[in-house]
Design goal:
The protein is of the alpha+beta class. About 30% of the residues lie in helices and about 30% in strands. The chain is built from 5 helices and 7 strands. Strands 1-2-3-4-5-7-6 form a 7-stranded mixed beta sheet.
Amino acid sequence: MSEILIRPVFPADHAAISDLMRAAYARHMSGTYPETLVRAALPHLTRPVPSLLFGGRYVLAEAGDEVLGIAGWSDISPFGRTCPPGQAHLRHLAIAPEWQRQGLGRALMGHLLAMADLTGVQQMHCLCPLNAVPFCKARGFDTLGEVFLSLSPDVSLPAAQMRLELGGLPDLHSKAFVAGAAL
């Protein structure tokens, strides 16, 4: 088995990231949402904004040439507005279906939260698909309420508005990995 490496995202990774997100989101959303909604939502959820994707706040996990997971945050909200100082949004977290439940999502989340904390982010927000709420709660996020994520005029996805206070995580940096570090 190859060593797992967490590293920054590069433009050459774009297609592999989109494929990974499609496979991961399709599998896990289908247990929570109707199949027709999943099919309609996937094209919107699996197109990360290139200026955010390559802005230094997204990382991926890989083993050899295989992309196993991706995670990213931004100080631009999903609605395109700049966040207030000290706040940011978790934008994507996806793990290849065959690699889920092995600690990779937890490692990527820890890495991106540590990155955000080091840049002065005090609150991480997330518009979380309902299937991912238990994972985010286990990482310390609080649910603020249910919302509808309007993906297009015809597609709205029930989701949870969640928030994490980064200052309340004393061991945050001990769980993080330096970019390029092996797991």
